[in-house]
UniProtKB/TrEMBL annotation:
Keyword Lyase attached: no
Name of the molecule in the record: non-reducing end alpha-L-arabinofuranosidase
Residues shown, of full length: 1 to 629 of 807
GO biological process: L-arabinose metabolic process
Keyword line: Glycoprotein, Hydrolase, Signal
GO molecular function, one term: alpha-L-arabinofuranosidase activity
Family: Belongs to the glycosyl hydrolase 51 family.
Catalytic activity: Hydrolysis of terminal non-reducing alpha-L-arabinofuranoside residues in alpha-L-arabinosides
EC identifiers of the protein: 3.2.1.55
Length: 629
């Protein structure tokens, strides 16, 4: 039952699980994701057809690439005159066209010019540890040495290698092992130049020699070990919203995450930063195998993240998408004589990987998705009957009349982010679910509101929730907590299972609750009664629709109003801008109203305030909890 769910969110992979220590190693991170535009520092994805009919505020996010070469800077001393520029003129590889150009106009004898990478909020350097440095450089206009250094926050050199012979034309690859003679958790990488001239740099990579299971291009050992110790039955990846992409064009493409890492163009995560895709399709399958877990691959079915833009690729593109996922499956489990099995074998893995599940999209709902799902289901089942195929919408959606269009499916993936006390109040939640020709995968669950960044109350809620799933294991056959990993310097989500910075990592209490329950599975169900006085365990309703505690986010998904144990109102997506609380009453935009059928509201419409704003009175107040997001 218990698996894990990995997504590129809060730098869980890039600057997290993936062992690379250099941020923006290929200088590709200033590019605008395909299909999006930049508007005064904000990234604007294509418009959502669903919303463009209304007057909902368009979604846009600050684009984090503040300059042309994020995470890189220049330091000059002793009167040296130098500058950095992004260069696209002579790419190392066409797929990754950007490089960094360093022009040093003048350099007195005692001067210094250093090109600096800050790592992922510092580089944690350990005394005695060795680091593999690789970079590519063009030096035809430079006649000096290059000194690579790891430098502590207070300016001390922790490791050094001097490249003496750097002349020649065209791109050249340089490698060295840097061994640290002292430690610092906040170190930087520096490439120091000694003479005036011009130098081009590309793909600067620094890896600890020791990675998880010592795989090249491998994983950060402490984080990977946390995951292995959970003994997950399966690993779901790569998302989450990440799968959906900020626009259909920029959604992840498994083929582009294969092969030489220098040639992978990267994927823009809807969480606001670039992934280098060094931790790509092959590496994930390898990780699953390394920790003895089945692989659950989630692929994009031609629709971008509904929270962001929700744009559907036209149906005409679906055949191409189907062909692509069949190829991805062949790469994972096809015989080594097959076209993609051959590619896998060439990558050093002739035997099939443990791919057991595939999921069609992430958190998509509605009739259009259902129709699309059916196409994928048929094509995949015909060729790979042994695979389990998951629908990205839950049973709650499947039971809705408009969405009955889903034909056959193996497992429904339903997500369950809950507020403090919810699991106690609704301890019998899954007991009441309809049993039909389906199984349920709770692909994302967590108690993540009213529990700070995750405390003992969260862990007790999660444990209670897990007991509810286990008690209904005829129906709920798989589960995974979300999100898994959080770099504390770039938090995209309020509560996460394992937190870390460049050098340290810390699993929350919920991690140990999941581990304990996974290691001690129940073999018998005893009748249980849970009594939890609603008023004390459930926060009052007013002012909480959309959970105002989560202030960094402007949209809320799957908001449910629950009255006497029943979901009386469900909204797939609302945004903070759509609602406001005035004098104890809610106001909502008509475009939101239009999404719900008349009579479906637990709220009474009182009066019209303006052209697109109504005042609503919340009748559901204090009736027993809410379901967050
Ligand atoms: O886990 C965080 C996000 O929550 C996922 O990306 C998405 O699937 C869900 O809405």
């Amino acid at each position: 039952m218990h698996g894990i769910f990995f997504e590129e969110i809060s730098h869980g992979g890039e600057g997290g699980l993936y062992g690379e220590l250099i941020q923006n190693r290929g200088f590709e991170e200033s590019k605008i994701p395909e299909g999006c535009t930049l508007d005064s520092g904000f990234l604007v994805p294509p418009r959502t057809p669903h919303y463009s009919a209304g007057r909902v505020v368009d979604w846009k996010m600050p684009f984090e690439a503040k300059n042309d070469y994020p995470a890189w800077s220049l330091a000059t001393t002793g009167g040296a005159v130098a500058r950095l520029a992004l260069d696209l003129s002579q790419p190392l590889y066409p797929e990754t066209p950007r490089s960094l150009r360093i022009d040093i106009a003048s350099m007195p004898r005692t001067a210094n010019v250093a090109v600096i990478n800050e790592g992922f909020w510092g580089i944690s350097v350990q005394q005695g540890a060795a680091y593999t440095l690789t970079f590519h450089s063009r030096t035809e206009k430079y006649n000096g040495v290059m000194t690579a250094r790891l430098v502590s926050a207070d300016g001390k050199t922790l490791a050094e290698h001097v490249f003496e012979r750097v002349q020649g034309s065209g791109w050249k690859k340089y490698t060295a092992t840097l061994r640290a003679h002292a430690s610092d958790a906040q170190a930087t990488f520096q490439l120091v130049l000694s003479r005036p001239g011009t130098v081009w740099l590309d793909f600067v990579s620094l890896f600890p020699v020791q990675t998880f299971r010592n795989r090249p291009n491998g994983l950060r050992p402490d984080l990977a070990q946390y995951l292995a110790d959970l003994k997950p039955a399966f690993v779901r990846w790569p998302g989450g919203c990440f799968v959906e992409g900020i626009s259909p064009q920029s959604a992840p493409n498994w083929k582009k995450s294969l092969g030489p890492v220098e040639r992978r163009p990267g994927t823009y995560s809807p969480w606001g930063y670039w992934s280098s895709d060094g931790l790509g399709y092959h590496e994930f399958l390898q990780f699953c195998e390394d920790i003895g877990a089945d692989a659950l691959y989630v692929f994009n079915c031609g629709v971008s993240c509904e929270m962001r833009s929700g744009v559907y690729l036209e149906d005409a593109h679906v055949d191409t998408l189907v062909a692509s996922v069949l190829e991805a499956i062949e790469y994972a489990i096809g015989p080594q004589e097959s076209r993609w099995g051959k590619v896998r074998a060439k990558q050093g893995h002739p035997e099939p990987f443990p791919l057991r599940y595939v999921e069609v999209g992430n958190e998509q709902v509605g009739e259009r998705y259902a129709k699309r799902f059916n196409i994928f289901y048929k094509a995949i089942k015909e060729k790979y009957p042994q695979l389990e195929i998951l629908a990205a919408m839950g049973i709650a959606h499947l039971s809705q009349p408009t969405i009955r269009a889903v034909g056959k499916m193996d497992i429904a993936d339903e997500h369950a982010y809950k507020a403090a006390g919810w699991a106690m109040t609704y301890a019998d939640w899954y007991d009441k679910y309809p049993r039909k020709d389906w199984r349920l995968y709770v692909g994302e669950y967590a108690c993540n509101a009213g529990v700070g960044a995750g405390n003992i109350a969260a862990a007790l809620n999660d444990a209670t929730f897990i007991l509810g799933m286990e008690r209904n294991s005829d129906l709920v056959t798989m589960s995974s907590y979300a999100p898994l990993l959080e770099n504390i310097h770039d938090t995209d989500w309020p509560v996460n299972l394992i937190r870390f910075d460049a050098g340290r990592s810390f699993a929350r209490i919920s991690y140990y609750a999941i581990k304990m329950l996974n290691e001690h599975k129940a073999s018998v169900n005893l009748a249980t009664q849970v009594s939890a006085p609603i008023d004390t365990v459930t926060p009052a309703f007013a002012g909480k629709i959309g959970l105002s505690t989560w202030d960094t986010q402007t949209e809320y998904k799957d908001v449910e109003v629950i009255q006497d144990g029943k979901v009386v109102y469900h909204s797939g997506l609302i945004r903070k801008e759509d609602w406001r609380l005035t004098g104890g009453q809610w106001e909502v935009r008509d475009s939101v109203l239009a999404q719900t059928k008349a009579g479906a509201w637990p709220l009474a419409l009182l009066n019209t305030k303006s052209f697109d704003t109504y005042t609503l009175k919340l009748k559901a107040r204090k009736t027993g909890g809410y379901n967050a997001f």
